């Protein structure tokens, strides 16, 4: 069975997984993200392919805007300094003599759900990762909808929900990310005068009206987002993952009630099957056979 290396590059750590065609993870290693980043990546990739010569190809998922066709980082914020402009595919293929593919990490997570997780059986799905930010991945006919001259296709987190709303890291105001990510929920909690973590907020909503209000505003905004995406993409399913989804048992009913009147057609809403390992699985899928 074919085995490949899946790499998930984030702001604090890089995760390496050796994965087979069935999605089985054989080796799973984490290293701290340090800089210069490309040198760190190449060092660990070379070390792993020396130890595991069965690795046949390398898939890489990374934060930032990616030109997936050329495997190049078009833009990444200062979370990963120096990463913008890096020709990851070209350099790493030269170093390893193996095939290398690069994609945005949210797209990789969506691919993992589509092939091995909750998205199985759906031809058209949108994966929303509610974590530090809001990652979006769109799968149409089992393929990631990606690319564009700026690598920006499917950047759902930066669609605008409230014009002139909350300041966003992209320099504009009112993006989706500022209303339904874990960070956004933290802000909402603070603004409501509560001293709770997002994990404490959701169970509290049944007894505390202030907490209930925060949850209601969050589920309403998420419902509007899902409804808008349906009008644009007519997907069969939405898969919700990321840290915020771990509390879904407290807010899913609320979301379903709020989204129902906003939908054009029936839509399945499911929770993601994978946590953080979606990154290495999806990255591996970039280079695994269909
Ligand atoms: Zn934005």
From TrEMBL:
It comes from the Bacteria. The keyword Transferase applies. One of its GO terms (molecular function) is kinase activity. The keyword Magnesium does not apply. SUPFAM superfamilies: Actin-like ATPase domain (SSF53067). Keywords: Kinase, Transferase. InterPro entries: ATPase_NBD, ROK. This is Sugar kinase.
């Amino acid at each position: 069975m074919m085995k490949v290396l899946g790499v998930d590059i984030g702001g604090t750590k890089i995760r390496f997984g050796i994965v087979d065609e069935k999605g089985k993870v054989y080796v799973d290693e984490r290293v701290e993200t340090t800089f210069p980043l490309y040198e760190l990546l190449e060092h660990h990739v070379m070390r792993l392919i020396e130890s595991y010569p069965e690795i046949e190809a390398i898939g890489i998922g990374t934060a930032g805007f990616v030109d997936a066709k050329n495997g190049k980082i078009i833009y990444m914020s200062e979370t990963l300094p120096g990463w913008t402009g890096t020709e990851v595919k070209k350099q790493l293929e030269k170093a390893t003599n193996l095939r290398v593919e690069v994609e945005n990490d949210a797209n990789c997570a969506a691919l993992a759900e589509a092939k091995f997780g909750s998205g199985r059986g759906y031809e058209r799905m949108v994966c929303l990762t509610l974590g530090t930010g809001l990652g979006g991945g769109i799968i149409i006919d089992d393929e990631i909808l990606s690319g564009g001259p700026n690598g920006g296709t499917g950047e759902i987190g930066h669609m605008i929900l409230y014009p002139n709303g909350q300041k966003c890291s992209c320099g504009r105001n009112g993006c989706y990310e500022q209303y339904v990510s874990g960070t956004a929920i933290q802000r909402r909690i603070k603004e409501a005068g509560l001293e709770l973590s997002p994990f404490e907020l959701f169970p509290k909503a049944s007894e505390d009206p202030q907490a209930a209000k925060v949850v209601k505003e969050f589920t309403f905004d998420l419902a509007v987002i899902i409804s808008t995406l349906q009008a644009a993409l007519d997907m069969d399913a939405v898969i919700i993952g990321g840290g915020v989804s771990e509390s879904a048992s407290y807010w899913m009913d609320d979301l379903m009630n709020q989204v129902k009147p906003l939908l054009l057609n029936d839509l399945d809403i499911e929770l993601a099957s994978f946590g953080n390992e979606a990154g290495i699985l999806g990255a591996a899928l970039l280079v695994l056979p269909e």
